[in-house]
Amino acid sequence: MIIVDKRKLLLIPVGLLALVIVLYVILISIIILPLIISSFAEDFQFKPLNETKVTKVATIPKEYGDVSHSLIFLDPNLTRVGYVMYKGEKAIAVIDGVVGRPYDYIDWLFIFSSDGKHVAYEARDGEQEVVVLDGKEIRKHDGVMYFTFSPDSQRIAYAMKAGEKKFVTVDDSEHKQYEGVGQIVFSPDSKNVAYGATGSHWDDLFVVVNGKEGKVYKSRNPYIRPVFSPDSKLVAYVINEGEYGNMKGFLVVGEKEGRKYDSIASDPVFSPDGRRIAFHARNKGKYYLVVTDTSLREYEETELTYDDLNSEVYFSPDGKIYFAASRKPKNVLSPIVPDRIEYYVVIDGKESRSFNSLALPVFSPDGKKAVYEMFSLRGSFIEIGKKRSRYYGPTYFYPQFSPDGKKLNFVVMEGRDIWIMEAYTN
User: Fold this and answer.
1) 108 — phi, psi (to 5°)?
2) Parallel/antiparallel/unpaired status of strands 90-95 and 81-87
3) Which of 53, 57, 264, 272 is deepest in the core (most CB within 10 A)?
């Protein structure tokens, strides 16, 4: 007879569990410690930004409970604040300390006009959605979306849903109803309005400018975001036409159609002088940065060797082209952390250092200085040149340069207080 010691059998799973825990701790140490060490090592390469508190914008009252950091917004001038608080199951908007009426739901996005004098948001009241402008309900319908103010802050546009149809309202004027409408844009001079729409067939796609419908395209991708040129005279947009697997993408400027690619991977953007248009395209499995003129005759195509493109294409105030991209790092940690991604900002073809999180710059008015909102295991921070701010918890930043570019303001939250911080950039 074989006698089995049950106590020894019990030791086997306990030993295996201990081994698993040890291996897990070692693995976490291998992954996390290098990131923490590199974060501290980076600090030695930067000087302190030495930001100071300038203005307390608001204090969130304790009676409204916890503050959701994603539901706090400031106007472009950093003088007004709006946030959503909850009492029981009701949502309440608070603008500059003025408490609004409770709703069943309030959209997380507050839209301020560029001069900071107006603010709009969407709320749900029973079965209907409400447009709230400057604290007053101005429209109520089955659905509301795509709020936007004109650049001069004098006009407002938004899309509404009536049954299965959708339509755009500009000021007090209702446009024609469509199967679907897209994001609404004003021209820089605030006189013109454009948006994408779908017709009686869901793949009939066209652009509407000041109520006039453009050419109809057949597309399985119903998204169009038109853009105006800086002088407000031209409208550009991209079309990805055809069935998946047999699709062609191209740029449309006015009524002209540009060179065709397998697909267009971003919205177009005009240069500050209005002479160039840039966008991302994909052809034969490769990404390209494409720059063309407004006549669509001259093309400059630059192949991009990144795993993915993580932003639209942008122009800085002085005409530099920039965008965010990413790739998987090829180093000793690659086999251990196969999902790790490094992000870069590419400015006029020059690649930045790698970032652990996606970061796009905010430029000074002359385009010569750039500030980044950064996130790490140790917290959030501002980075400009060789200077870094302190580490903060969940925060807002809204970085804003002074007109001469010598000062930088940004917003942080400490406890229940929202502060504007100031720093010198030189």
Assistant:
1) -70, -15
2) antiparallel
3) 264
* Res. 33 pLDDT band, cuts 50 70 90: low
Structure tokens at 331: 């180093």
Q: What DSSP line would sit under 298-313, residue for residue?
A: -EEEEEE--SEE-S--
Q: What are residue 350's phi and psi, to 5 degrees?
A: -95, 125
Model confidence over 252-297: pLDDT tens digits?
999 999 999 999 999 999 999 999 999 999 999 899 999 999 999 9
Residue 211 CB-half CA count within 13 A? 7
Sign of the torsion angle spanned by Cα atoms 267, 273, 274, 277: negative
Cα angle for residues 37, 39, 360 (degrees, 5° grid): 155
Per-residue model confidence as pLDDT tens digits over 392-405: 876 678 899 998 99
Q: What is the distance between the alpha carbons of residues 98 and 59, in angstroms, rounded to a whole number?
A: 12
Tokens of 257: 């159609």
Q: Which pLDDT value is given to residue 162?
A: 87
Torsions phi, psi for 106 (to 5 deg): -130, 130
Domain spans of the chain, in order of start: 1-45
Average pLDDT, the chain: 85
Spatial contact of 394 and 380, defined as CB atoms under 8 Å apart = yes
How large is the C-alpha radius of gyration of the chain?
26
Of residues 238, 179, 232, 240, the one with CA closest to residue 210: 232
Instruction: Provide mean pLDDT across the span 134-140.
Output: 91
**Residues facing residue 288 across a β-bridge:** 281, 303
Residue 14 token pair: 């306990």
In terms of Cβ atoms closer than 10 Å to its own Cβ (0-12, 13-18, 19+), residue 183 is middle
Q: Which two structure tokens, joined as six digits, stand for 294?
A: 């407004």
How many angstroms separate the CA atoms of 169 and 158, rounded? 6
- C-beta of residue 174 within 8 angstroms of C-beta of residue 211: no
**pLDDT at residue 10 tops 60:** no
pTM, 2 dp = 0.84
Strand partners, 106: 123
Sequence-ordered list of residues with C-beta below 8 angstroms from that of 138, at least 6 positions apart, any chain = 131, 132
**At 243, phi and psi to the nearest 5?**
-80, 155
Please indicate whether residue 79 or residue 223 has the higher confidence score (pLDDT).
Answer: 79
